[in-house]
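Appendix C reproduces, verbatim, an entry submitted by the partner laboratory led by Prof. M.T., so that reviewers can inspect both the input and the predicted structure.
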Amino acid sequence: MAALATPPATTVDKVPAAGSSPRRRLRLGKLSVNVVLLAVSVLYVLPLLWMALASVSDLNTFQLKLPGSFTLDNFDAVLNVDTTFRPMLNSLLLCGFGTAITVAASILCAYPLSRYRSRVRRPFLYTILFSTGLPITAVMIPVYSMFVQVDLIDSMPGTTLFLAASSLPFGIWLMKNFMDGVPVVLEEAARIDGANTMQVLWRVVLPLMRPGVVVVTIFTFIGMWGNFFVPFILLLSPEKLPASVSVFTFLSAHDQTQYGQLSAFSMIYSLPVVMLYLLLARKLGGGFALGGALKG
């Protein structure tokens, strides 16, 4: 009986694990992204670190280095009525009332743009979009001339209204986009129950788009708070100047800038914006909470 031939032993080539090369490329990609993000973060942190160190340093220098000794003399030098308290109060009045006017007007303007259809709706939206990119310096000369003619130069209410008007296009554009996310069926249900337009806007739409109102409020306030050019042109009296303009007094053209006092003032100047963000940021986490809006 013939012996059965056994097949020759075959060697199985070692195949690299599937996906090992793509996994390595993925790791390298993530590492590259993290390095870029870290570099960008350092670029943002370094000025803040310099400001924090210079505010408590006894060295009046522009260089970023650890101070020889920490001191609060810079804060003591700027914490007075003329340097900090009055300019900060002026800034709060200008930006606070200007933001309130902008947010209220944005809500009233965005509602018909979001809910009603018209032939002039699209051209009006394009006009608003164009206005958001228009630099404020391009209109300050005619605005200054108009303010002189109507006797509003050096007027806090007039400057507040112009700050609100200049922020209004951006506020309307943002508010309209947030308002588009609220379902129209909720308004129809409220109208069936007898609610009028203002009741629908106040009791149905605004509670559901509260995060959008918060976003517009924060962006508007920050834009007004850092605005230097408008109050510098429209306000003349030193006792009416906001903090964004009074910070100019720390700068000198003869290499005598008080960097320590400037940094201390900048730290105080940043507090209202940080506090506003911390107070309102908790309303930004959940987005639009539409759950439970309809029942039955």
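Confidence is low (pLDDT under 50) at residues 286-296. Additional entries are available on request from the coordinating office.
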